[in-house]
Every structure is written in structure tokens, then in C-alpha cells.
User: Fold PRR5L protein from Chionis minor.
Amino acid sequence: MTGGFTVAPSFALQIHKMGSFRRPRPRFMSSPVLSDLPRFQAARQALQLSSNSAWNSVQTAVINVFKGGGLQSNELYTLNENIRRLLKSELGSFITDYFQNQLLVKGLLFIEEKVKLCEGKYSEDRIDVLSEIWDHYFTETLPTLQAIFYPVQGQELTIRQIALLGFRDLVLLKVKLEEILPLVRTNLPASIVQMLLILQSVHEPTGPSEGYLQLEGLVKQVVSPYLGLCEDHSFSGSTCLLGKTCTSYRS
Assistant:
């Protein structure tokens, strides 16, 4: 709330007439009396500054993690406390969305750049780099993100699921792995198979997306026999039209 606080003359007159009949009430309610206004505004401004400081520390830590850095001693405790403070503020309901649509996208750009550096190299080299990137993401980055956002609970998708879906869509599906896999089938690192199976285990709550079905096509190349989501499906935008023979899908 940034504008000044005004009281209509008729409402102010009613307050004056009420006098001692006005019930006592706690300070800093949504409609403070004029005598409370300076303290109300000061407290609100202090809360906003505290929220900004807390959120800036979280953003800085998350981006540092994506760049390959770690957390300092006792930093995780401070970040968890900042997250808890933010959850109680006006920003609380936006934390998951901001992580998914801003922080995660920005962080994964650093990983995507590493993948792009391998374009034009031999297929084996590109697979090896992707394998190393996944290993670090799965064993270092992902657990750290989960630890930072541990206080965020009860969302439709967990921080872990959001981070895995982001890796799938913003990193893996841009590698054109479907062209590389047939060339390296005999020398495929185990971590690539692990990556595909773990990413396949994450389902969007809205149902199978185009990205999920693209991933399923990659899994079919490394797992045999393979029972997929459906034997026949087609796309209409990002909607999957399921064929007659499908396995059960659980979100």
C-alpha cells in the first residue's frame, strides 16, 4: 500500500460522535484511525524492506547454486528463515510461481549455455557433457534447491518436481537427443538412462504435455521392452489426444 490514507468527512464525523462508545481495537488493522497512521505506515514500510532483503538473499543464493557454487556455513538456516518470513508476507503466495517462471528459467540458462558449447562436436562428446551436467544437477543443484525452499509445502507441484520439469523442457529437449542416441547406443552412459527415467517419473497435474511425450520417445530408445503412456497419440497444440490402448496415467 503506497498511497496516502484519507478519511471521508462523514466517516470522520461518525468517529467523533461515537466517542467512548467506540470499542477498543488492536493497532495496525486495515483501517487505522488517524493517530495510528504514522506507525502503521512505518511498520508496513519496514515489512516491505525486510521482505525485499529476504527475497534478494534467496535469489542471490539460488543463482549462485546454478553457477556451480555452494552455500556458506549457516547460510541454509538463514535462507530457510527468510523463506518462512516471505511465506507470511504478501509475497508468500507468489514464491513458487516466481521460482518456476523466473529464478529457475534464469538459472537453467547457465546450464543451457554449457550444452550449447558442445554443438558441432562428436556425438560421444556431447553425450559425455550432458551426462556430467545431469550428474551435477541431480546430485548437487537439485538437493540444494530443495533444501533452500524446504519451508514451501503443500503446492500442486513440489520444488523438486518443478526443477526436474524445468530441466526437461529447458535443457534436455533442446539437445536433439533423438538424433544422438542411435549413434551412441553401445556406449551410452548409465547416467543418461537414469536421467530419462527420473524425468519420465514426473507428471504435470494437468495431464501429459507435449514435452512429456517427447521425453517418452527418448525413453523408448534406451529401454526395451517399453510400455509407454499410449500406443497411439497425436497433438493438438500442447494437448495429448490419447489412443484407445493406454496405460493408466497418474498425476
Summary: The CA atoms of residues 173 and 214 lie 8 Å apart. The chain is about 55% helix and 5% strand. The chain has one domain: 45-222.
